[in-house]
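Two proteins follow. First one:
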Amino acid sequence: MLFRAVLPFVLFLACVVFSGGCMCAGEAAPIPRGVIVCKPQHAKLPTALVVASDIDTASAGAIPMSFSATSMGEASLVMPLRTVPGRGVEPSISLTYSSGGGNGVAGMGFAISGGSAITRCPSNLTDGEIREVRYDKFDKLC
């Protein structure tokens, strides 16, 4: 029992006494003289210049967006996201922010808009009856 209590102390004492090479005080590391040259591992490859005049670019730091304020005084910001055009179809997707919005898929107040979806919706008088969504075959699709 006494051995278990003394052993950690003896190991600690040995580390402190015999740490000779681990002193923080002493001489500073020598400062290298001259220039240290880093040699590349591989030969230099030719640089290809990209010249494309048909690509629309924005100046650095400029993000196309539109800001507005709602009638309730909430800030609204819309930033269009560039997408790759498909075969005859080019989706229009944007990242939107509303200061009155809740927690969305992109963070607090942020949402992604422009994607279409078919969802279930309640029936109203123009459908012939007033009915909430019940997740059955009689739900209307919007």
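Second one, unrelated to the first:
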Amino acid sequence: MKHAVNTESLILAHLVANPGQTPAQIAQAIGRTYITVKSTLKIMLANCDVWNDGYSLHFAVEADGIAETEYLRLAKLAEELQSRNCWYRAGQAWAQARNSTSRPGLQEKAIYQHQRCMEEGNIRAPKPEPDPLLGRSYSR
């Protein structure tokens, strides 16, 4: 009797071997339809089995190791700062988290989160525009 391998297992195995794949690339590699892969990825994202970089590239979440305690501490701090809308400080915490790990998947996640926090900070607290008459910003 042959055992069927479920789609989630195939996706995880593929993403561990080939990180940064689009749903179409994953579907072609594992032999499933695009719709099946897309719907399965949505469930896996909700369960935190995979994460995406905001540009449709997906990565497998790596297991926590003892060496990654500093990364986990900084990531938790950054997430707390994000929940309090301290976007620039959260971005700094993500940058420190990126430097504290050697795992490529965790580094990519930290880079993406850092960029997202800095963009959100610029949207929520824009820098003052220069005064056209004085040639300097209003905050001076």
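SUMMARY FIELD: The helical segments are 7-17, 23-30, 34-46, 69-83, 87-99, 104-124. The first helix runs from residue 7 to 17.
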